[in-house]
Amino acid sequence: MYQPINVTYEAVTSIYRANQILQSLDVPLIACDFEAATTLSETERASLTALLDTDLPRLERIRIEAQLAATALDHPSYSTLTHFQLAHSEDFAYVFIINSPQMLRRIVTWLVSTPIKQVWHNATYDFSRIYYYTQRFPQNYEDTAVLAKCILNHVNTNLATVGLKELAGKWYGAWAVSPDNFDLSQQYDEKLLLYSATDACATYKLWHSIQQHLQSCTS
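Request: output the structure for the sequence above.
Response:
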């Protein structure tokens, strides 16, 4: 029976340790990903919901309804980055817990200044966050979702799906977690940390698999 790749990780919680890792990286390629969560606590959500039962000005009601409906994928004014994961192997990743503005600034500044090639899967969302905070983009990057889409290139969308879980599930099994875990109160949850680490490792593994496929096509 096939055994999924066993992923391990280091959870990074201090700026000092983050600097150590980022400054010591001497590799040609890394795989990266972010996790995010809405900024509202359960108490704040309940308070805003109660306000909707009162007589509010129209614009204020629209603002509150938009805030309550927001997900982690919405504008940074409604959500925040919670984790940055980085892998340069298929079975180990660093998971930086973004627990302060200083940690966030250190990570995004490094991402737009390092010459190391970065691999992201479906980078649109992640890059919108990087640009929001820095007004810059990474210098050297590739997107495995775009690469996979170009290779599959099928008019039947069911035969051209490029979700990371679908493409890398043959190596890592089913590692998705419930959306309920994407909550600031669970930022240190071990299941979420392992999920985050697996995302980065799977992206790294997928990129190398794509390169091997391309080389076999030209040999």
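The chain has eight helices and six strands.
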